[in-house]
Design a protein that fits this description.
By secondary structure, the protein is mainly β. The chain has three domains: about 90 residues, Lipocalin (Beta Barrel), CATH 2.40.128.630; about 110 residues, Lipocalin, CATH 2.40.128; about 80 residues, Thrombin, subunit H. Helix content is about 0%, strand content about 50%. The strands form nine sheets. The chain has a four-stranded antiparallel beta sheet with strand order 2-34-33-32, with no helix packed on it. It is globular, with a radius of gyration of 19 Å. The termini are far apart.
């Protein structure tokens, strides 16, 4: 049995007081274009945009494919079982993992197949190249035929005794499957799972299993062949996935994924400090402490802004250049459940209560 570590485990009576929100300058106009209720979210949900479509799911196993332009439901399927991870999709097929350790693949509102896994997973499956890839909590990686569900290969390795109950790193870069395994970013051959390269982003430290935990947490950020990711409460680092070479790594004490543009890598510290590292060398460009202890989501790029959600359901639009507050939008008052996504010109966010909101610039 693999041990689990929950990120949010401190007593609420010990949490520092969240920073007061600054005045909303409303430097540009954003409007709420649509909203809907998708049902409560209490598992590691990942939203992914493919074209104008965005897939969401709730804790009870209802999966919904949306048109981000209008909020229209393209299809919806109730699987009848709670979920532990999702939703991966490629615009046609969608995949989730149930608490019963089953990988379920759907298309056009119908279940195509399901397969029993050898371990649970907290990372949304990757649907790519007519295959479905799974990163399990026991640090095994598997590939399945997207049409039939037949398992094509499985690779496993020994890791640290503890893992995080949150999304890890699993993405495709060209013809390489890039996976976070313990504190390493690993490039794998998607045809058979063999390792092409391994890059340590952080090393275990401390005297006990909790202190030595160095799992990589999602979502990662990617531009071209460069992937940047966070090692839990240890570092932010960037890797050249063609050469399998570490570009830079910097100490950082955070627990959610990162985002980047051509100039900066944006990361959230555990205390809510927002940091911008220079993409070229990892040196700090700026940091913002106006949202300390507000339990921020991973950031997302939206137009000229970076956007983060907080535990009160607000979305904060900040300048990429210096972190200056540009605007703020509200949802239903519950925490933003996961990193928002951008589909076309629509920013889509989901709350823990299950409110899904689409925002557009005016």
């Amino acid at each position: 049995m693999v041990g689990l570590v929950l990120v949010a485990c401190s007593s609420s009576s010990l949490k520092p007081q969240p920073a007061e929100l600054p005045a909303n300058p409303k430097l540009f106009s954003v409007r709420q274009a649509w909203s809907l209720d998708a049902g409560p979210v209490n598992f590691p949900l990942e939203m992914r945009a493919v074209g104008s479509s965005v897939a969401v799911a709730n804790a009870l196993g209802v999966v919904t494919m949306l048109d981000a332009r209008t909020g229209e439901k393209l299809w919806q399927l109730a699987l009848g079982t709670p979920l532990s991870a999702g939703v991966g999709h490629d615009g046609r097929k969608a995949a989730v993992i149930t608490r019963d350790n089953e990988l379920v693949v759907m298309a056009a509102g119908a279940e195509l197949w399901r397969q029993r896994l050898t371990a649970t997973s907290y990372t949304a499956p990757l649907v790519a190249g007519e295959r479905v890839f799974v990163l399990n909590a026991d640090r095994s990686v598997s590939a399945y035929d997207g049409l039939t569900g037949r398992r094509l290969w499985n690779q496993s390795r020994q890791g640290e005794p503890l893992i995080l109950r949150q999304s890890g790193v699993l993405l495709a870069v060209g013809d390489t499957l890039v996976v976070g395994l313990s504190g390493k970013l690993v490039g794998m051959n998607p045809m058979n799972g063999s390792a092409r390269w391994e890059v340590p982003l952080a090393s275990p430290r401390g005297t006990n299993d909790v202190e030595r935990l160095v799992d990589l947490v999602g979502p990662p950020a990617r531009i071209g062949n460069v992937v940047c990711a966070r090692a839990f409460q240890a570092a932010v680092a960037c890797v050249d996935t063609v050469r399998g070479a570490l570009l830079w790594t910097k100490p950082a004490n955070g627990a959610v994924g990162v985002q980047m543009d051509e100039s900066y890598v944006f990361a959230i510290e555990a205390d809510g400090t927002i940091q911008a590292f220079k993409r070229a060398d990892g040196e700090q460009a700026w940091n913002l402490q106006q949202f300390r202890w507000r339990q921020l989501s991973a950031p997302i790029l939206a137009g000229p802004s970076i956007v983060v959600g907080d535990d009160s359901g607000f979305l904060h639009f900040l300048s990429r250049e210096n972190g200056a507050v540009q605007n703020r939008m509200s949802t239903d008052g519950s925490a933003i459940a996961t990193q928002p996504v951008v589909a076309g010109n629509t920013l889509v966010a989901i709350t823990q209560r299950g409110g899904v909101y689409g925002f557009k610039p005016e």
